[in-house]
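Residues and backbone
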Amino acid sequence: MLLEEFLRDRAAEWSHFLTSARINPSQLPGGAVSYQDRMVEALPGAYRRTAVVNRSILAQGFSKTVASLAGNSLESHEILFDWSGSNIDAADVESILKLVGIGKAWDQMTVFWKILDRTAPNQSARNLLNEVTSSRHRAAHALNPALAQTTLLALSRNARLTAILIDALVSTALVKLARGDVPGNAISNSIRIRRIERDSSRWSEYGPKATRAFRRHPDLQTALTEAAGRAKARDEFVVAVDGGEIKDWRSLI
C-alpha cells in the first residue's frame, strides 16, 4: 500500500531528525515513558514485517533507543512511527501524532486539510483514512472486487492526501520539539503554506497568503526545488496544485 510505503520511508527521516536534534528524553511530549510505551505497542507488527535476516538489527536498534531514553540524548528509532497491525489504522495515526505532542489528531488534520485544500468537503480527515482502508480491504479480500476506475482514482487521491496531512503535522511538530517548543493542539493553524499552481504551461509560486506570483517556473520539478529552498528558510510547507488536484509537497523535514 502506497500510504504505508511512504510512511515507512518518512519514519526513517523523522527518526534521523530526532536523533540529530539531540533532545533530552525528559523534554519529550509525555516524557520517556510515552516513547517506551509507543515502541512496545509497535514492536510486534514491525517484527512480523521485518525479514528474518534483519530482525536482529531491529532488536539491536530497539534496545539502543530504549537505553537512550534513560540518558540525556535520544537515540531515535523508526519504529516510533510504525503501526501496530498489518496496515495503518486510525489508532496508529492518533498514537503517532500524540508521540510528537499533538492531541486531537483528527481535528488538527481536518483543520489543516481545509486550509490546504480549497475544495475540501465538509467532513473529518478520519473519513479519508477510513475510505482508504475500506477500498484496500475490498481489493485485497474480495474474489472479484471489480473496483471502478473512479474508486481507484479516489483511493490513490485519498491515500496521498492522508500522507500529506500526517507528514505536515508530524514534520512541523518535530521541528518545534527540536527548538524546545511545545507543538500543542493548534499546530495546524501555525503552518505557513507556500503554494505552487499550474498556470498554463508554467508553474506559478505564491508565498503564504500572497495573491501575486513570486515567480513562474518552467516545470514542476524546478518549481518544487526552488520553492523548497525558500520555504525551509522560512518554516513553510510547500504544496503543488494542478486544477485543484494536489500533485506534490515538501515538508520542513
Summary: DSSP finds eight helices and five strands in the chain. The chain has a mean pLDDT of 89. Residues 149-178 form the longest helix (30 residues).
